[in-house]
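Researcher: Good morning. I'm working through a list of sequences from a screen, and I'd like to move beyond sequence-only analysis. For each chain I'm collecting a predicted structure so we can compare shapes side by side. This is the next one on the list. No need for commentary yet; just the structure.
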Amino acid sequence: MTSKRVDRRLTPRMDLRLPIQFRPFSDADVAEVKTESVNISRRGVYFSTSLPVSMGMPVELQFTMPEEISGKPERAWRCVGRVVRVDKRGRLWGRRGIGIQFDYYELVPLGYTA
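Model: Good morning. Structure tokens for this chain:
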């Protein structure tokens, strides 16, 4: 008997490569890391990183959410979320894949540059 994996996602996910700025939320000493999404939805994002992460770790991200996902004109978002998936190192370009669920987000003011 084979088991089928059930997709529990609440919102559709799109395979989009978007630049992301990411850092652990609770550690101000860790420099922000730039990476790229593998896929994204309104509720979360999946990307790779070489930073050590663990399940439940709070993170902060900043990226431009495309209109195809949000249904609104493209804008920069600042998100706080938590790690809900950690894949083994090496699966994505020698790095670890991680899934983030967004807990909170806000629009970045127009004209703001990091």
